[in-house]
Design brief:
The protein has a domain at about 5-80 and about 160-240: Rossmann fold. The protein is built from ten helices and ten strands. The chain has helices at about 45-50, 75-80, 95-105, 105-115, 120-130, 145-160, 175-195, 205-210, 230, 235-240; strands at about 5-15, 15-25, 30-35, 60-65, 65, 80-85, 165-170, 195-200, 215-220, 220-225. The structure holds adenosine-5'-triphosphate and magnesium ion (MG).
Length: about 250
């Protein structure tokens, strides 16, 4: 089967800094793939290139066999690729429900609603129930706890009916008691919605239990790809994370 995402020779420079250098990889439909790399490795820049927030200096991206590069973010979303952000930014002054309804009015979200005979409000209620925010729909979004804002980010992305979901550090800023349930939610969405998921994370223990394969990057370059078990023992990955204990790497 053709990969859902094919990234070929992607490069992005900021002046003299090469943030993403000749990155190539592919993602199979239905996989949960992890992107691993130290701070500043180029992970978020890679997501920005995949979602049209930045244009690459070189290289190509194909999603479902169609070229993605040079497409603005709203077109990328309409093709079925949605993302969350490293920092949560809910629409302030709007309720949790309204935050998700905005995304239900996106062309792809609206088409799904029409096909299934559901109003944006009903679609949003369902999605918020799915992500565990069903009892908080009337709250102002900015009053949600940080962990719930992460769930809201995911709900907004789901409302655009993606086939491929990109999550940028979904566990960042969460306590250990919040990480496992969120990890379980991501597994649930993968299973129930048949989503393909690409996930950046630093919390390695939970991350390694969640993903099926890993792409490790350092200084903008792919340094290793493979199963989580192989990646945490890969000499280049251990070197990139020098100073981390085996427990941090999830292999103790
Ligand atoms: N808009 C920008 N202009 C200039 N430099 C940038 C810009 N965005 C990112 N960079 C630089 O590119 C490099 C990669 O940044 P990026 O945010 O992609 O890293 P990251 O792997 O996501 O790091 P973190 O784990 O801290 O989120 C860093 O050196 C960063 O300072
Ligand atoms: Mg980042």
């Amino acid at each position: 089967m053709k990969p859902i995402l094919e990234v070929c020779d992607l490069t992005k420079r900021f002046g003299g800094l090469v943030a993403v250098r000749n990155v190539s990889f592919s993602v199979r439909r239905g996989e949960i793939v992890g992107i691993l790399g130290p701070n500043g490795a180029g992970k978020t820049t890679l997501f920005n290139l995949l979602t049209g927030f930045m244009a690459p200096d070189q290289g190509s991206v194909e999603f479902n066999g169609k070229p993605l590069q040079k497409q603005p973010p709203y077109r990328v979303v309409n093709m079925g690729l949605a993302r969350t952000f490293q920092l949560c930014r809910p629409f302030v002054g709007m309720s949790v429900l309204e935050n998700v309804m905005v995304a239900c009015y996106s062309p792809r979200g609206a088409r799904h609603g029409t096909t299934h005979g559901e109003s944006p409000e009903n679609c949003s209620r369902k999605i918020l129930g799915d992500v565990g925010l069903g009892h908080k729909i009337d709250m102002p979004a900015e009053l949600l706890s940080y962990g719930d804002q992460r769930r809201l980010e995911i709900a907004r992305a789901l409302a655009t009916e993606p086939e491929l979901l990109l999550l940028d550090e979904p566990f960042a800023g969460l306590g250990s008691s919040e990480i496992e349930p969120l990890s379980e939610l991501i597994r649930h969405l993968h299973r129930e919605r048949g989503l393909t998921i690409l996930i950046i994370e630093h919390k390695l223990r939970e991350f390694m239990q969640l993903v099926q394969s890993v792409i490790a990057i350092d200084f903008g370059e792919v340094i290793a790809t493979g199963s989580p078990e192989d990646i945490v023992r890969h000499p280049k990955v251990v070197e990139a994370y020098i100073g981390k204990t085996e427990a941090d790497l999830g292999i103790a």
